[in-house]
Amino acid sequence: MEFDWSQQDREHRQEVREFLAAELPDNWEEMSRHGPGGDSQAAFSRHFCGRLAEKGWLTQHWPGEYGGRDCEPWRHSILGEEMWAVGEPRGSQYMNVNWIGPSIMHFGTEAQKALHLPKISAGDVLWCQGFSEPEAGSDLAALRTRAEKVASGSDEHYVINGSKIWTSYCNHADYIFLLVRTDPDSSRTRGISVLLIPMDTPGIEVREIPSVVGERYFHEVFFTDVRVPCDVLLGEEHTGWNVVTHALQFERVGAARYARAALTLDHIARVAAERGMLDDPIVVDRLGEARALCEAARVLVYKVIDLRAKGSPPTADTQLARVLSTNCDNAIGRLALEIFGPESRQYASYADNNFRLAMTAGVAVGATEVQLNLIASRFLELPRE
Fold this sequence. Notes:
Helix 5 packs antiparallel against helix 6, helix 5 (93-107) crosses helix 7 (240-251) and helix 10 runs antiparallel to helix 12.
C-alpha cells in the first residue's frame, strides 16, 4: 500500500501554504483566539473563502456542474489539514463545503440546488446547524422542536415552534440547517424532517450563551410561530433522519483536528527542550504518546477518506476516527498545561487557548459517548440492553 502523497498533491499543499502566508492578516493568531463566532473572524471568513473560491480550491472536490473541479476527496483533505493547522480561517464555511453542500446535492430539489450551491461554492454564505436541544443534547432523536404544516388558501407552509442550544456560528449565519419533528405522533428517529431556513425569518431569536471557550461561540436559538414555505424541506417529509446520518458521516471527519494538534505538539516539544524538560523520561513518554495519538487519528481519517474516494458506503471507521481525533486533541491540550506550568493559567495564553478549544472536541457533532455507543453497536456488534 502506498501511503505517500503524489507529486501533484505535494505541490498543491505547498501552494495552499503559500496562499495562507499571503492572505492571513498579521493579527490572525490573535483574531483566531477569539473563536469562529467573533465578529472579526466571521467577516474575514467571507473575504477569505471568496479568495479560495477565486483560486478554485474552496469546493474543488465537488462535481463540476455544482461549481467544483471533480477532484478526489484527497484534495479536499489537504485543504482541510492546512486550514485547521492555522486555526481554520474558513470559519463556519468548512461545514458548507464538507457536508451542507453535499447534503443538498444528494437530497435537494433542483430549485434548492440552484439557490444554495452557487453561494456556497462562491464562499459567499454562512450556515449554522440547528441540531441539539435543551432536553435532547447529543441525542438528536429526542428532539422536540415542531414544524406543523398549515394550509392557507391554496398554499401550505410550516409553522415552527421550539428551540435549539449550543448552536455555533448562528449569530452571523445567513441560513440554518434545521432538524424538526414534522409528525407530532412520532418518536425517536421517525417523523423528523430537515428544513433550510433563512436566519432573518421573523420569529427567530438568537441569544448568546457565555462560555469559557471563546467569544460568541455558543447560542440558543428560539423559534416562535416561524412561518416558512414548504419548499424549504430538504428530502422527503418525515425522513430527515436519513439526511442527518448522511450528513454526519461527512462532518465527523471534516475537521482535521489532528493537524492542528500535531503542530501544537511540535511547539510544546520545542518549549520542553528549551526548558531542559526532555531529561525527564516521563515528559518524553508523554510527548511520544501524544505523537502516536496524532498519527493514529490521521491514519484512521485517511481510511475514511479512502472509502469515500472509492465510493464505498460509510462504516464505523468514521466514529473510530472521530474518537481518536478527540483523544489526541484533549491529550495535547492537557500536556500543554503541564509543560507551560503557571503561565498557562493566564487567559488567552498559548496553553490556555489550546486547552479551551480542545474542550469542544468531545461535544461537537455528537458527544464522544455517542460515538463510542455507535462503535459498540456497528463495529463490535454488541447487544443493546
